[in-house]
Write a structure and sequence with these properties.
It is a single chain. By secondary structure, the protein is α/β, with parallel strands linked by helices. The protein has a single domain, classed as Hypothetical Protein Aq_1857, Chain: A, CATH 2.60.300. This is DUF779 domain-containing protein. InterPro entries: DUF779.
Length: 134
């Protein structure tokens, strides 16, 4: 099945570390002004998903959402979440770890694009992802 989001080994390791320390997580990719378009990682029960946020899928068993406006820009790309040296965004859980999440992307192949089109629009809002309680 064609996925809309995946992650690198470095991101997997950081997600595991953060999950052990903070419990269930939630990712949100925005196009915000303060932290740019960095993927943000929160304790799952401390972020309220909006009705128009797009549920892209699960990233290491943690839900990954994207703001509706940002999704429109990136709807034709597969998002690859990486972890690289640097200071994380101010509110994101990885900030004190000396690493930060980074979004890389690639265009879908023609076959992937057709598969996603056949599935229809991705769901929006928290009622489509896992509960906020984890």
């Amino acid at each position: 099945m064609t996925e809309r989001v995946s992650c690198t080994e470095a991101a997997r390791a950081l997600i595991a570390k953060l999950r052990q320390r903070h419990g269930p997580l939630l990712f949100h990719q925005s196009g915000g002004c303060c932290d740019g378009s960095a993927p943000m990682c929160y304790p799952r029960n401390e972020f309220q998903v909006g009705d128009v946020d797009v549920f892209l899928g699960m990233l290491e068993n943690e839900p990954f959402y994207i703001g509706a406006a940002q999704f429109e820009y990136w709807r034709h790309t597969h998002l690859i979440i990486d972890a690289v040296p640097g200071r994380g965004a101010g509110f994101s859980l990885e900030a004190p770890e000396g690493l930060r999440f980074l979004t890389r992307s690639r265009l879908y192949t023609d076959e992937e694009a057709k598969a996603l089109e056949a599935r229809g629009e991705p769901p929006r809002g928290c009622r489509h992802g896992p509960s906020s309680e984890g």
